[in-house]
Amino acid sequence: MDCPVCREPLIVAERGGIELDVCPWCHGLWFDAGEFALLSEKLGRPLRVPEESLERAATSEKPRRCPRCDRAMDKVALGTSLRVLLDRCAGHGLWFDHGELGALVRQLTPVPGSPAQAVLAFMGETFGAPVPEAPATTGPDRDPGEVER
What we know:
Elements: E1 11-15, E2 18-22, E3 29-32, H1 35-42, E4 74-78, E5 84-89, E6 93-96, H2 100-105, H3 115-127
Antiparallel strand pairs: 1-2, 2-3, 3-6, 4-5, 5-6
């Protein structure tokens, strides 16, 4: 399978049950259909809108070709506070340019010690997205001014 940006072969990277196709040249990521929903579940943030029903985004960007079927992909927007423009093949998956997955990951707030925090740390290490710090909490055995980290 070739990268839709630079047309070089993608390599498969798997960790924590999440398998991605990565371009070692442009650092883009391909999620097969359903894999992004799997990631969002592991992060404890189920995808509110199924991948297949994402609306097309208005843009002047040239369409990219799906690495699976070589058809032109749609441009779609995803995210909460900052919408990220992605390439989507309705039948095969989502393409993230370098930094786009990190932009979505930075919008999430992990719970301390949760599997979601571990997945966020993995994604940050792998794709250069800084991991948001979990909110500090006070515990029952602590003074009100003491913070647990």
